[in-house]
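Quick one: co-fold with adenosine-5'-triphosphate.
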Amino acid sequence: MRYEDKERLYQQTQKKYLWLRLVNGCKSLVQKKERIFVLWFFCPISILIWYLFKSNLGLEDIPLISPVFIVLVDLMLPALLIGGTFVILILFGTPRGFDKTANELHRIGMTNSAGEVPMLLTRTQDKRHSNVEILEFDAVGIPLTEWEKERGYIEAALNVNIVKIIEGRNKRRILLHVVPADSGLPDFIEWNDSYLTGDDSTLTLGKSQLGLESVDLSKIPHILLGGSTGSGKSILLKVLLVQSLKKNAVVSIADFKGGVDFPRVWHDKCKMCFDEDTLLTLLIELTDELERRKTLFRENGRANISDYNKQSAVPLQRHIFACDEVAEVLDKTGLAKEQKERIGLIENRLSIIARQGRAFGIHLILATQRPDANILSGQIRNNIDCRVCGRADTILSQIILDNTTAANQIPKDKAGRFILHDGTVFQGFWIDETDIL
Ligand SMILES: Nc1ncnc2c1ncn2[C@@H]1O[C@H](COP(=O)(O)OP(=O)(O)OP(=O)(O)O)[C@@H](O)[C@H]1O
Ligand SMILES: [Mg+2]
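Sure, here it is.
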């Protein structure tokens, strides 16, 4: 870009910012009523200053004074009032750290091709979380993906922890939800039943800087947990299953890792399957139940399980099917034709549940280290909207979340630390099932 073009853009942007600060200043009068008094005070003080100035000139003592000069002196009063009001409004509309933020972002190279830095427009307290501040930026054309990529640098430059980055009311605005840099997440939070929610469909995952993170299965019916070995998938899976049991759901667990992760106590409370035949039978039962519920809801004119349970004397239970390391089940590499066909049948049933399970209260929670396309078909993956990823490399993060945030943001030494599909980082609960079940 040529120097003159840059200069022209720079001038335009400066005018735009001045205007935006003026608008924000006016808006702030509505939110912070005491500011109106500042303007009220300003008027009489300006008039007094102007009056003293005019009297000191002693115009009436000067012979043959030009009438133009007298008019000019008189015009100074409205100019002072209007100009001063503008300056005050611009000051009101300028957030704390306006210049400093711009300078810091400039230093880390957070600029567009014209060399402009995102401009801080407002800083507000998050209404739901008192420790979170929302910084609203004019993004100057820098897309959300770039902000995500530079997250670490932005945190260091602004000395904050970013809880989440989202677009504002349009793509030109970026909202950073931030907390002070020293308020990190704890490494260990033990589950206790006080975290249990009152309804039958919400499962709590852990704590983020915004508070408790949970997923409502009546809205987002299935969960995919990813992460490299030792990242904490099995523990998180158990946290979700314990809650499901406490909410009176029917829990089935497929564990093809030799049963080490699910001790005896689980076998008493859940349907367990350790081989393909039992798994296929279980999935057939689940899809049959789905069909049965379909007919039941149709006959009763009900749209979904929550609707049905409201009017029924005998409520239907939710079914949760969990599979720890789904790749162990679905990997067809090196298998004979007959075995491949059997896995095809398993996949087919999983995919029916993934597509239709929400309304009928039948849910999948799948955990895996390698959820690539050969292992988890698009049909299943695309219908699982709650994606959670622990520490991972860029490939794994990309497969689970469709971005590399898990690789960038989850420290390699943290177990039980996860990132959600919406970019929220949380510490999953730790649980010892023998104490709880
Ligand atoms: N929420 C947590 N808080 C603290 N530590 C945890 C948490 N989750 C897991 N860990 C630690 O990490 C270890 C591994 O956890 P886990 O077995 O759940 O990992 P995984 O991802 O299932 O591993 P693999 O893929 O090998 O099965 C646990 O034994 C525990 O020490
Ligand atoms: Mg595991």
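If it helps, The domain at 193-436 is CATH 3.40.50.300 (Rossmann fold).
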